[in-house]
Amino acid sequence: MEHDAPAAQATADMASQETRHGILIMLAGVMCIALIDPAAKYAARDLPVLQVVWGRYAFAVVTAIVLFRPSANPANWGLVRLPLQLLRAALLLSATAFNFLALRSLGLVENQAIVMLGPVVITAFSILLFRERTNLPIMAGLLAGLIGALVVIRPGGDVFKTGSMFAIGHVLSYAFYVLLSKRLLETDTALSLNMMAVFLPSAVLSVAVVPVWVWPKDLASWFSLASVGFVGGLGHFLLVLAHRHAPASTLAPLTYTQLCWALAAGLLIFQEIPALSTTIGALMIVASGAIILFCNRR
């Protein structure tokens, strides 16, 4: 028994160290994901939105090949349900397009606050479509998220009529993308989901972008266009890697640090100062997500 205690302590220390590594990797991944928006917003000042969306996927393909090192034969990726994979890729593409369109008129924090509704919407759809369990605290969290979104969006204002509608389209598209991803993982491999999500949109957009193509005017434009894809691809890779080191319940709250990066990028790059209503609404949305997360961990 005396020898068991040191062994148990060593095992606990190793698990704790693994979790810390997972947290650090997750924070880096979330930072990369958050940097997609300022890079896209900067690139879209001189380039068509369609071209910026192309950059998101074309350069992500390069990143995916380097990081995941997939087989040259897609048949070896573990792809089982192709029609649903096509639908999933289309949902992610539409989510990206909606997000970049929203950024044309919304500030980074304002857009990110609405995007943070994602976990709330996913929970609501899970309850409605898949009859997942619910209780009073979860319903309170959903209501708080809805109220927070209304505070940010300000129905009746000019923002609601333009950018916020695109941001809501992004949230809905991404919510269905996540729900479909969960179903596909029952049969298809994570590698196939990652590769198809970037290869299919890249192939379609490489044709669609030709009529509207505008050559970036300087190195900064090229850098921002490439960064949209590179940081996005790296970010998703780090998210996958983080979940190998720490449980999802520990990592999930860290996604809300995207708001901090959005605030910093908005101030430093675009000199954006979020309105008080945006700050209050964002805090309400974060609180609602935290309530739902806590209830689901119990």
Automatic annotation (TrEMBL):
Domain EamA: 22-153, 162-293
Superkingdom as given in the UniProt entry: Bacteria
A GO CC term assigned to this protein in UniProt: membrane
Transmembrane segments: 23-43, 49-68, 89-107, 113-130, 137-153, 159-180, 192-214, 220-239, 251-270, 276-295
Alphabetized UniProt keyword annotations: Membrane, Transmembrane, Transmembrane helix
Xref: PANTHER family: ACYL-MALONYL CONDENSING ENZYME-RELATED, BLR2811 PROTEIN
Protein name: EamA domain-containing protein
